[in-house]
Amino acid sequence: MDHESEAAYIRSVCAEFLGEHLGSQLAALARPGFGLSPASESRPAAGRSRLGGAALLDPGTPWPHDGKGPLNLYAVLDTDELAPWLGDELPVRPGLLNFFLGNFYDCQVIPADPTGAVELRSPDDHAFAIVPLHARRRLSLPDMWWGGALEDLIEGFGLDPGPDLTSICDPEESVTDLFAGDSAGGHYPGSADDDQAFGWPTWIAPEDPLPDLRGEYTHLLHLSSNLGEWEFPKGGSLNFLIPKQALRDGDYSQTFVAIDVG
Questions:
Q1: Are 221 and 239 in contact (CB under 8 A)?
Q2: Which domains does the chain have, with CATH numbers?
């Protein structure tokens, strides 16, 4: 499905559940992203995107450490493969993005030029198993981490409910379940994805000290627990986010992690 067709489908569903006035406003919040799943013969890898393995870094780039030792390399995204679908969501071309984690909150994202990047293994020779990633294009809507109710979503995004709010369907188990976060694959038969690149973040624990995410932050990557390799606390998954201005400036030191509530 191309971008225009996907946007038209989301708009039609939003209008069906919410009416044209409010539905068109919600549909306008849709962000482009990708559902990530293991690549196969019929589902090719998105360039060099993968889970685990060695990092892909510019020559001479040191392996990142925290106070306890080297961080673990969890994933690499090949953004050159993703950029054509993302549009303004990716205002720069960072090439390869390497995602490192220490204690689930101590993260680093390190870009690399794909034309000269070299494989670098961790100094302690630890590496998760390599899983090449297929990236399925999609649009997503904000998840209900705004409070779990239609009124909270309307207030959080400054939407105008119009005069018919009392007569329309609450979208908590309809629109947002269809298109939000890691369940966005629900309207593609048999295509639910475990992980996600870009788009909107999924459910986030309310105790996480998060700023207002309406327009100032870009969601880079949602990672779920990979049983046998790694397991995250609470809901078993997390999101990497970065301020939009930092992304434009190439300042990945401002990337932070938010835990999903599951």
A1: yes
A2: 3-259 (2.30.320)
Q: Compare 155 and 144 and report the one with higher pLDDT.
A: 155
Pair 198, 90: CB distance under 8 Å: yes
> If pLDDT is split at 50, 70 and 90, which confidence band does 1 have?
low
Q: State pTM to two decimals.
A: 0.86
Say if residues 179 and 30 touch (Cβ distance below 8 Å): yes
Residue 133 in contact with residue 51, Cβ under 8 Å? Answer: yes
The two tokens of residue 22 are: 């409010």
CA–CA separation, 89 vs 208, rounded Å? 24
**pLDDT of 59-75, one tens digit each?**
999 999 988 899 999 99
Q: How far apart are CA 185 and CA 136, in angstroms?
A: 9
Dihedral (Cα; 156, 157, 162, 166), 10-degree rounding: -40
> Using 50, 70 and 90 to split pLDDT, how confident is the model at 104?
confident
Q: What is the pLDDT of residues 177-223, one digit of tens each?
A: 556 544 433 332 233 456 899 998 866 554 444 555 556 889 999 99
